[in-house]
Design brief:
With 263 residues, this protein is an alpha/beta fold. 43% of the residues lie in helices and 14% in strands. The chain contains 9 helices and 8 strands. The chain has an 8-stranded mixed beta sheet with strand order 3-2-1-4-5-6-7-8. Helix 3 runs parallel beside helix 4. It is globular. The termini are far apart.
């Protein structure tokens, strides 16, 4: 088996961490990312110090740009990018720039990071975006920070927006990246997000890490052009009616582009 270089955002806890452990145990080079330097260092040491770790706050778009510049300077060729970092509930849902942090972390950050890292991806690379079974019609004004939403509404809209972006990038991108895949890793897994958001322990988290590892490595997931994999039913499936609507997706991307830092 050819060992791959795999970047997993939000990999200091939850599904991201479990996926990182699983892939590292198979001999792959895993690049871990988080916001907490102490947690990141502990995870690196638990992997035997054989992985690279990166600090970046995905609620800050300038920080994401810096993160991408560091990876680009290191010229690390990425075989799999797993955009896993996400947020559901937070005490401070509005960023310093007046945006909803759920949209910034769950939607804008993965779009922006993928765009910036495209030169490090190649014709057999895969981009895996963590979606959710919770999806709701996107309010562009909410994405732009003009309307404030409750936790559940913001989360569901941000996840549909990411699903739409995944399909759009696969269909309209001029890159030759092999696969763009949106995935619901399974509903109500036992992550910190679920415990804090819903007050339940949730299901075995390995259900989620297992499917992410499969999508990252299995040949059956090559050359997938923006489809949505629903792990609640174990197959590709339609998501929301807007999930593959290119016109609606273009509206979302146009809004996001207007929010990105200028080069």
């Amino acid at each position: 088996m050819t060992h791959k270089t795999i970047l997993i955002t939000g990999s200091t806890d939850g599904i991201g961490l479990e996926t990182a452990k699983l892939l590292a145990s198979k001999g792959h080079k895993v690049l871990v990312h988080g916001r907490d330097p102490k947690k990141l260092e502990e995870i690196k040491q638990s992997f035997g110090g054989k992985t690279l770790g990166y600090i970046s706050d995905f609620s800050n778009l300038d920080d994401i740009k810096t993160f991408a510049e560091i990876l680009t300077a290191q010229n690390i060729k990425i075989d799999v990018l797993i955009n896993n970092a996400g947020v559901y509930k937070t005490a401070n849902p509005i960023t310093q720039k007046g945006l909803d942090v759920r949209f910034v972390v769950n939607t804008i950050a993965p779009y922006y990071l993928t765009k910036l890292l495209t030169p490090l991806l190649h014709t057999t690379s895969r981009v895996i975006n963590l979606s959710s079974a919770a999806q709701a019609t996107v309010n562009i004004d909410a994405l732009m920070g003009r309307v404030h939403l409750a936790d559940g509404d913001a989360y569901a809209q941000s996840k549909l927006a990411l699903t739409m972006i995944t399909f759009y990038m696969a269909q309209r991108s001029k890159t030759k990246i092999s696969s763009f895949i949106a995935v619901n890793p399974a509903s109500l897994l036992g992550t910190k997000m679920v415990k804090e958001g819903y007050g339940i322990n949730g299901k075995d988290i390995s259900i989620g890490s297992g499917i992410l590892a499969r999508i990252a490595l299995d040949a059956t997931f090559s050359n997938i052009k923006g489809d949505y994999f629903d792990n609640d039913i174990g197959r590709f499936s339609p998501s929301h009616p807007d999930g593959d609507d290119l016109q609606r997706a273009e509206e979302v991307i146009t809004a996001i582009e207007s929010l990105l830092p200028k080069s």
